[in-house]
Amino acid sequence: MDSSQDPLESTRGLLAGTAVLRHGFLDVLGESTSSEAPTFAQRAMNSPFVATVYERLWRPASFYLASGVTTRAEQRRAATVLRLGSAHRLLDVACGPGNFTGPLARQLPDGGLAVGFDISAPMLTRAVLDNSGPRTCYVRGDARMLPFADETFDAVCCFGALYLMPEPFRVAREMIRVLRPGGRIAILTSYAGQRAPLRSGLTAAARAIGLTMFDRHSFVDLFSSAGLVDIEQRAQRALQFVAAGKPR
């Protein structure tokens, strides 16, 4: 494979700044750390142990309980909604160990590139080990300031992470910014649309470990106000899937 097709070099060409190769992924943060006190959930995502068990045990079991949807079914839905058969660049925000980045990359056409983006070095180290391929590259950075130019990607997604983030709506706006006209965006996040007793219990439990529960309007309204079209939302127990397109 020549350098023009090397996913690392292709991704370097997309970055708005310098990056250091570290454990197989590109790092735009270096040794910098956040001054914010992380929650229990955020600390867990930065744990090497959690990174090891997340893809095979924690994520499949917890998300099936929360939604009733298997990981394989989630991946098929994502590939369909994002229209990956005609996408050339995919950005997977908060990709973790690449459990979606790798499988979705295989749905891209020849020459396609899937960039997995996360702030956790242990997660990205795991992603490089378990979910690398000729169409994948992983980048460490802060999703509140995605290091890419406007309209860089044909598809952008974030599955199961926005509720962990200190500024989730800022991250969502960044995702929209780097999406090309005609591109597709999809998120899977928490859902607090249940009846009052259950909703109150879920919200309190989530708050205790540092998670945010979003209502049915949060991201639909954000997408609509940003000018996105063809917005669809599916609520599944404690999770919601929201997808939309950016007008050409």
UniProtKB/TrEMBL annotation:
<dbReference type="InterPro" id="IPR013216">
    <property type="entry name" value="Methyltransf_11"/>
</dbReference>
<dbReference type="Pfam" id="PF08241">
    <property type="entry name" value="Methyltransf_11"/>
</dbReference>
<keyword id="KW-0489">Methyltransferase</keyword>
<keyword id="KW-0808">Transferase</keyword>
<dbReference type="GO" id="GO:0008757">
    <property type="term" value="F:S-adenosylmethionine-dependent methyltransferase activity"/>
</dbReference>
<protein>
    <submittedName>
        <fullName>Similarity with UbiE/COQ5 methyltransferase</fullName>
    </submittedName>
</protein>
<dbReference type="InterPro" id="IPR029063">
    <property type="entry name" value="SAM-dependent_MTases_sf"/>
</dbReference>
<dbReference type="GO" id="GO:0032259">
    <property type="term" value="P:methylation"/>
</dbReference>
